[in-house]
Structure formats: C-alpha cells, structure tokens
Amino acid sequence: MGDPDVREAWAARLAAWLPAAPADVLDLGCGTGSLSLLAALSGHRVTAVDRSLPMVELARAKLAGTGARTVAGDASRPPVAARRFDAVLVRHVLWTLPDPAAALRRWCALLRPGGRLVLVEGFRDGIGIPAAELTELLAPLTERVHTERLSGDARLWGGPVSDERYATVAVPTPARRHTEVVDVHLFVRRGDEVLLARRANTGYGDGLFNSPSGHVEEGEDVREAMVREAAEEVGLALTPEDLRIALVMQHRAPSGATRVGWFFEVEHGAGGEPVNTEPHKCSELAWFPLDALPDDMVAYCRAGAKAYAAGERFVLHLHEPGDPVAYVPDGPARAVALAVAGER
Ligand SMILES: C[S@@+](CC[C@H](N)C(=O)[O-])C[C@H]1O[C@@H](n2cnc3c(N)ncnc32)[C@H](O)[C@@H]1O
C-alpha cells in the first residue's frame, strides 16, 4: 500500500467499519501489517497475527512505535488466550482457511458484547468467497450483516477492477441464555398406590391421567410451588416439610420446548384427604398401583412415575418431534436415567 491515495481510501473505509477509537482491534492474517498500521494510526490498540514469521517480522517493523502487538499464529485459532476485542479485522484470508465457518464462530467468541467482525474478501474465477456465501456462513451467528461493494471504488485498488470485491461488517447476536419452565409434580403414596388426576378442558393432555402438578411461579421455590399446587388441585394442606424429593427430570415436549420437573412424594393422609377441587379441569381422581399405571397417561408423568418406582433420582425424558403427549405402550423409550455420584 505504497500509494498515498490507496492508503487514504482504505483509511476512510476502515474508519467507517471499525468502532470509534480507541478500540481493541485484532488483525488476523495481517501480512505486512498495512491495515494494522492504518488502524493503529487512527488510535486503535492493534494486535496483528500472521502465521508466516517473515510476515510477522515485516509487520513488526512497519508497526514499530505505534504500540501495536505482533504475534505469530494461526488465524483459525488466534493465539490471544482470554483477551477480547472490539473488532476482528480480516482481509483476504478467510477464504483460504480450511473451515471458514468454524473460524467465524471462534472469531465471534473473541468479541466483547457489541463487537464486530470486519471481513474484506472477494471472488474471481472460482477463487475467493462470494459475498452471498459469506452472508450465509454468518447467518447462524447474526442477522446484523452489512456488506459494502468495493469493486466500484478504483481508489482502493489503484485502478478499476471488474471482479467481486466487498467488505462485510457483522455484529454477532449475543448467545441467548437458555431458560426453562420449572414444574412440580406430587406423588401421593397410599401403600403401593399413587394418586393420579384425569385432566379435562385444559388444552394439554386432556383425557389423560397425570399427577397433581403445575408450574413454579415467580418468586416461589419448588417446595412452595408444590404446596400451593397440592392445595389448589387436590385440597391438601401440606407444609414444605411434608414433601420428600422423588426425582428431578428434564423433559422435552414434542414441540422442542424443555422444562425441568421436580417430583415430590408425600404420604397419604398428610394435609388431609385428597379431593377434586378443580372439577372444571379434572374429571376424576383415582389410585393406581405404581407397578400397574394406566396407559392413558401423559407420557412425561408416566416416565416420571416409572423412574420413581425404579428408584431413579435424575432422569432425562426427551421427546422427539412427532411424539405424542400421551403415553404410547409400544412407543419408543424416551427416558434415560442418569448415574448418580457416589452410586456405582
Ligand atoms: C493476501 S495476504 C493478506 C494480508 C493482509 N490481511 C492484508 O490485507 O494486507 C494473506 C496473509 O494471510 C496469512 N495467512 C494465511 N493463512 C493464515 C492462517 N491460517 N493464519 C494466519 N495467517 C494466515 C498469510 O501469511 C498472508 O500474510
């Protein structure tokens, strides 16, 4: 980039693509350090990486006195340990990497929240990476992608060009933290039997037996939620101390949504005699031996009851798309009991 006009053209573009100075900029596959130098001269704190030692030496000489750091290493796995950056700048390198998608994922992970990738690439005669392909590669990481066509700006290239040249600025969407509903289930034990309630008019599992259960509400712990649900659904006046933990199960509905169910056990008689206090949502209460559970049951609850009867403590019950909510006697087994520390 010896030509001052070319340098000026790139400096102007870079100023638009990079965040306001001073920012931490990582230039991967920096070559002789031309872009690093422009970024450093604009006030950015630059780290320049190249896998070629001669290139690193050239970049080091070019960047001397700017405060920029030069490091030898692979752009695919930048040798920056736990450092984070406001921008990862990569020009004419991505297309040469063996797994560009993996490199993009790693680069995103190096960015601070709100940080950006600045990627300058091109495509000609089957060599390089077309802008549309890069946008597709970025799609799983973000929709915030802006591509500028550069072929028409002859100043950047020292003369007119006709092949595809562009810059893509992408701001990765922060990974959404996974959240799950927590629900609570009650196994009221009468000897070998357990109490089940047949659901009605609820829009979920209607006509099927289920244990008295419900969602944990804002501000409740799981025991408080169980005490409340037991009172609401079967009229039991339990205290948290009446409850014993039966098992914890992560369940995935056929829709793909997951939830965590805490299943509690309580002796028949604790908190009074169970009665159907919600006849508009429950058509009957009935007792069933744990080893002879009804088939017309919510599969999730049945898997919990079976696991409980088997003495399991932690279970995954992960439906696949297309599975019914109802238990299917000959259906695929979806429950997986997890090994418990200390038990061999
Ligand atoms: C075409 S030059 C571009 C240099 C610089 N980005 C620029 O635009 O002025 C490609 C540079 O990427 C470096 N390079 C290629 N693959 C690399 C990799 N996997 N890790 C680090 N550097 C790489 C090469 O050594 C070379 O210096």
Short structural summary:
The protein is an alpha/beta fold. Helix content is 23%, strand content 31%.
Q: Which CATH architecture of the largest domain would you pick?
A: 3-Layer(aba) Sandwich
Q: In total, how many domains does the architecture comprise?
A: 2
**Count of distinct strands:** 17
* Share of β-strand residues: 25-35%
Rg over alpha carbons: 31 Å
Task: Give the low-pLDDT segments.
Answer: none
Structural class: alpha/beta
**Main beta-sheet strand count, sense and barrel state:** 9 strands, mixed
End-to-end C-alpha gap: 67 Å
Order of helices and strands: HEHEHEEHEEHEHEEEEEHEEEHEE
CATH class call of the largest domain: Alpha Beta
Give the helix tally: 8
- The percent range for helix content is 10-25%
Chemical compounds bound to the protein: S-adenosylmethionine
Relevant CATH superfamily of the largest domain: Vaccinia Virus protein VP39
Mean pLDDT: 96
Shape: elongated
Examine the coordinates and then state which fold CATH places here, giving the name of the CATH topology of the largest domain: Rossmann fold
List the helices and strands and how they pair.
Layout: H1 4-17, E1 24-28, H2 34-41, E2 45-50, H3 53-63, E3 69-72, E4 85-91, H4 100-109, E5 111-124, E6 127-128, H5 131-138, E7 145-149, H6 154-157, E8 164-170, E9 181-190, E10 193-199, E11 209-210, E12 213-215, H7 222-234, E13 244-252, E14 258-267, E15 282-289, H8 299-309, E16 314-318, E17 335-337
Parallel strand pairs: 1-2, 1-4, 2-3, 4-5, 9-14, 13-16
Antiparallel strand pairs: 5-6, 5-8, 7-8, 9-10, 9-12, 10-11, 10-15, 13-14, 16-17
Bound molecules: S-adenosylmethionine.
